[in-house]
Amino acid sequence: MIDRNMKTPPQHGGRLQAAAEQFNIPLSDWLDLSTGINPVNWNVPSIPQQIWQRLPERYEQLEAAAAQYYGAQVLAIPGSQWAIQNLPTVLKAERVWLPKEAYEEHQYWWLRHQRNLCFYESLAAITPNQYDAVVCINPNNPTGNTESVADIIELADRLQSLQGYLILDEAFMDPTPEHSVLCYDQELPASLIVLRSLGKFFGLAGLRLGFVYGGESIREHLQRQLGPWAVSHPAAYIGELALRDTNWHCYARTQLKEQSNQLQRLLLQIVPANNLRSTHLFCTLRLTESKADSLYNHCARHGILVRHFPQWAKIRVGLTTKNGMERLQSALQCWET
Ligand SMILES: Cc1ncc(COP(=O)(O)O)c(C=O)c1O
Ligand 1 pocket, 191 CB below 6 A? Predict the structure, then answer.
């Protein structure tokens, strides 16, 4: 049953401690495939003492590195989650369109701010009124659905003429930057707000660093909401270095593509191609309710945590290294479908 009112905060992947207790397997024995985070993170160097000691004065260098990396002027925020939580306080939209299956924090925070929600299966099905906002996640987590830049721009133009907004969550876009709307070669519509994250591709989820692109007035509103030191000095220091490391970006993109292909090949041994969707950071299986349940429990009994979405009968599997793949393969081989 989908809890459309979301009285309780959504749950997320990565809850290893709870799994360790439930399945009585020591924490250190688990293989965590329950997130869409790069299993090989950007290697964090040691941080100079004064970075710890002093408050960050400005984020100019960080934002300059981000502008170069994303191809647009962006505002540094403590994770894209911060924007998800705060946009409802900044945007007046009364009605908000959300993907039917998606990262549930969007829904949760709009509901907390008492907005009316509509759910859509495809962008083409959206019929916006004046002042509506649309949330689009590209690629979508967990469905893996993708939208074209042309369709996104077309919708953003439509919303602009209705004085509405398009909030585009590109948290998982970094492996395929050529599909980002920020690479669009013409001026972006003023209705467009784009969220980016350093958590997924860089594998730095714990750093709590992200960016938001938006028109000047939105950036100013968000800036005021942020206050003076919302992004920690170590996060700004590390983020700048990671964003400038173009050699690593190329290496990581190649690695992730290869790992995703390997994972797809493995998962195709247990589901037909129609039931498998993939991005360069995770794969998602569409199953029956009982099979999703069975696969989740089977993997957990082997000390492998995957993400179960019982409300949609889906299992999301994150990428892993060679050893992890071997472990997953041997667990899947003895799953009774
Ligand atoms: C689609 C999507 N957007 C945004 C976020 C938030 O990421 P962060 O706050 O680490 O940037 C997540 C986290 O899982 C996500 O799945």
Answer: no
